[in-house]
Amino acid sequence: MINSHYAWQLQPVADEKVRHDLSSQLHVSPTMAQLLANRGLKEADAAQAFLQPDLQTVHDSHQLHDMDKAVERIEQAIAANEKITVYGDYDADGITSTAVMYEALNEIGANVDYYIPDRFKDGYGPNADAYQRIITAGTKLIITVDNGVSGKDVIDNAMVQGVDVVVTDHHELPRELPNAVAIVHPRYPGSNYPFPDLSGVGVAFKVVWALQDEFPEEMLDLLAIGEIADVVSVTDENRALIGAGIQLLRQGMRPGIHALLQAAGVNEAQLTSTDIGFTIAPRLNALGRIADANAGVELLTTVDEQTGSRLAQQVEAANQKRRELVDQIMGEASAQAAHALDQPVLLLVGHNWHQGVLGIVASRIMDQTGKPTIVASANDGSEVAKASGRSIAGFNLFDALDPHRDLLTTFGGHPAACGLSFELSKTDELRAALLAEAQKQQFDSHKQIPLVVDAQLRAGDVNEQLYQEIQKLGPFGPGNEEPIFEFNDVQPSDVRTMGKNNDHLKFSLNGQVTVVAFNQGKLAPILEDQGGQVDLVAKLSVNEWQGKRTVQLLLTDIRVRGTVILDQRTSHLTANHFGQAGFYVVEDTRLRENIAPHVGDGKALSIDQAATTDFAGKAVTVVDCPKSLAAFTKIFEKDSASPALVRLLLFENNSVYLAGLPTRDDFAAIYRFLARQANIQWPGQRTAVSRYLRINEVRLNLMINVFSEVGFVTISNGVLNLAKNTQKADLKQTDHYQAQLARYQAEQTLLYSNAGALAKWVLQCLKED
Questions:
Q1: How far apart are CA 378 and CA 247, in angstroms?
Q2: Which of 48, 277, 284, 720 has its CA 20 to 30 A from that of 201?
Q3: Spatial separation of the C-alpha atoms in residues 59 and 497, rounded to whole Å
Q4: Could you give the CA distance from residue 268 to residue 257 in angstroms, rounded to a whole number?
Q5: RecJ OB domain spans which residues (predicted)?
């Protein structure tokens, strides 16, 4: 059994009349009608309006707090030819915000440049040294985009020096705000702006609109990238703005974006919000994580194709480097996490991990373990670790860390994510504080997170028509999530891994549709030969390769009902085989003693101990190959529920099956040899006898033991001789032969049958028990 990561919550099937009316009046499939009903759109007129978002619904920019003040000061600077600096941020929202403001001011004829802070030297938001350099260079007006509200001291100091600052931001408002000329913010206290969920680029776009006094439609493509990258709500005006921006992106008007999509292998004409979120946004973010984010602004604003191509290659290289860094760190971080799974919150501390990708690693570990995760790293010579945290529903990361600022050097964030630093000497105290806060919040790390599932489908329902219908519900994001579908009792086939490190998974669903699962390569051996016991939830997507377009499924979650049989048979045991929690059944006493220190949170058992242990819902690893099939079945003979997983290592370094069982002719040959030779040193001359008779030592040793058991030979003081006055005996009924036969049969079934036959045999054992 493999439990699903999420608690699937299937939406109730809409009233039949509602589905029929929507389907007939809008000419959509019953599935599409269900999806509309799930969104509360049960009348055709409301559904039609939703499917055709209108820019006329976008709110007036002048409703934003301090907008008129901001426009007035910017217009004064342009008229006086004062130097203006746009002060941005190094993530995708900050880069697009800077591009929108810079491009608009440049087109108006302003004396303008921009500054993107360095993640490591300047940090997030207004930086005192950076501001001073900007002021020294002659700037008279600083316009912040996607930052500013948390920079009171730095901004106030600039104002004192006679340099005005206009703040445009969307982040959480602190208690004390800067004394700026204007603070344009959609959630400013007392503001009448009707929609609070603009991102940084959304606010910058609104300023440009107010400044130009006409709607800047040509910048909607940049807005779409920034808003999707910042994962803001795709409702209200954002839905119309992002939708129009995607339409503009599909036209390929910006050489840099066009080249970036080409390099990434994305069909520009069919671009979706998912492509932006998983292709454009990570690449722009990669610049700020490991390179120079200024290149991102140039990429977005250039009108030269050669420059666009060069910058796209630069961005692609940064993204590839980011991937490599994440892969490197994930190996170490995952190993740490595996030894801390008893903790409700994970704090993983590394050495010289690249600090630009810690947030990505934290998110990956959180997805793997289902636990809130903080990933920290200290560089050589530093006693302070920088960290990024990610959390799940049910555990407020900000509230957990806020009372413990005495343990932290820096800290900031919100319930789901944070950035912090702390002295390495306080690591244990911080872990204890996180544990206490988890208890205080009554956080249960084992509780599944709810996942809304829109409808149930069969593999045969997945096609291009349904995919195109679903796209009409977009753009997707928070508040308008992409539909997720449930597929039950499916038969995975053609299971294989993908990627450089076999991290990803691909398989066929009932031979009708392909499923792709990122970062789930470890499931490959589990999904093989599992029969019809697999359920999954997934989203529809499109794969385009060499001009061929195929609709596929992207896995969201999976569960395997019944016991999972994991075939990991090996002839070489290492410590890596024993890092998982669970039970380890080892027949050989010495081997059991040797592996006991390596099983961590697991427990090493003999077969007799296993026979009385309740494995219900647990993981069981059979380490060495039992000496009989009866011994194997004894492991699971207790009257209890089946284990969730049976992992088969079945180590054997002296195979009886490969040696074979002795034949009647073999016994005769040995008997004749002993009749001619007396006083053989045993076992000293065993190898020589084996070579002379051309009978391997395993069979030879068995035959001598059989002869000894029936009295055909004597062994005294290490000397072997044929006995006198022997009685006729059935050699194959001796204890030694029967034991070897049992071992031979066990190896034949357990070691040398194919994976499917072995899984079937083990499952049958579990059913019989």
A1: 44
A2: 48
A3: 48
A4: 9
A5: 453-557
Higher pLDDT, 580 or 302: 302
Nearest Cα residue to 478 out of 196, 106, 755, 71: 196
pLDDT score of 768: 66
Question: What are the CA-CA distances from residue 248 to residues 77, 132, 210, 258, 318 (Å)?
Answer: 31, 38, 21, 12, 26
Count of H helices and E strands in the chain? 29, 27
Mean pLDDT, rounded, for 177-193: 96
The 10s digit of each residue's pLDDT in 717-754 is 999 999 988 889 999 999 999 999 999 999 999 999 98
DSSP 8-state symbol, 477: B
Q: What is the pLDDT of residue 668?
A: 94
**Do residues 212 and 106 make contact, with C-beta atoms less than 8 angstroms apart?**
no
Among residues 8, 92, 179, the alpha carbon closest in space to that of 559 is found at: 8
Distances in Å between the Cα of 223 and the Cα atoms of 202, 239, 245, 291, 485 are 6, 11, 7, 23, 30
Both tokens assigned to 617: 């819902």
Total residue length of the chain: 769
Is the link from the previous residue into 478 a cis peptide, with omega within 30 of 0? no
Q: What is the mean pLDDT of residues 486-507?
A: 91
Q: What is the CATH number assigned to the segment(s) 564-652+751-768?
A: 3.40.50
Cα of first residue to Cα of last residue in the chain, in angstroms, is 17
Beta bridge partners of 373: 346, 390
Judged by DSSP in three states, 514 sits in strand
CA 465, CA 549: separation in Å to the nearest integer?
13
Give 119-165 pLDDT, tens digit per residue.
Answer: 999 988 999 999 999 999 999 999 999 999 999 999 999 999 999 99
Q: Is residue 531 very low, low, confident or very high in pLDDT (cuts 50, 70, 90)?
A: low
Rounded CA gap, 87 and 204, in Å?
A: 12
CATH class of 657-746: mainly alpha
Domain 340-441 has CATH 3.10.310.30: yes
Question: Average pLDDT of 353-374?
Answer: 94
- C-alpha 713/C-alpha 671 separation (Å) is 9
Q: Which pLDDT score is estimated for 654?
A: 86
Determine the pLDDT at residue 766.
84
Q: In CATH, what is the architecture of 58-317?
A: Alpha-Beta Complex (3.90)
Cis peptide before 475 (omega within 30 of 0): yes
The predicted pLDDT at position 617 comes to: 84
Enter the pTM of the model: 0.80
Q: Cα dist. 671→665, 688, 697, 718 in Å?
A: 10, 16, 16, 19
Q: Which residues are registered as beta bridge partners of 537? A: 486, 557
- Do 476 and 482 meet the contact criterion of CB atoms below 8 Å apart? yes
Contact 706, 734 (CB under 8 A): yes
**Domain limits, the chain:** 6-13+451-560, 58-317, 340-441, 564-652+751-768, 657-746
Q: Which two tokens stand for residue 245?
A: 């921006």
Cis peptide bond N-terminal to 403, omega within 30: no
Residue type, 334: S
Beta bridge partners of 530: none
CA atoms within 13 A on the CB side of 142: 33
Q: How high does pLDDT run on average in the chain?
A: 94
Q: What is the pLDDT of residue 656?
A: 92
Output the CATH code of domain 6-13+451-560.
2.40.50.460
For the beta carbon of residue 382, count every other beta carbon within 10 angstroms.
14
Amino acid identity of 37?
A
Residue 240 contacts residue 54 (beta carbons within 8 Å): yes
Q: How far apart are CA 743 and CA 629, in angstroms?
A: 8
In this prediction, what percent of the chain has a pLDDT beyond 90? 82
**DSSP codes of every residue in 665-681:** HHHHHHHHHHHH--SEE
Q: Is 90:118 a contact under the CB 8 Å cutoff?
A: yes
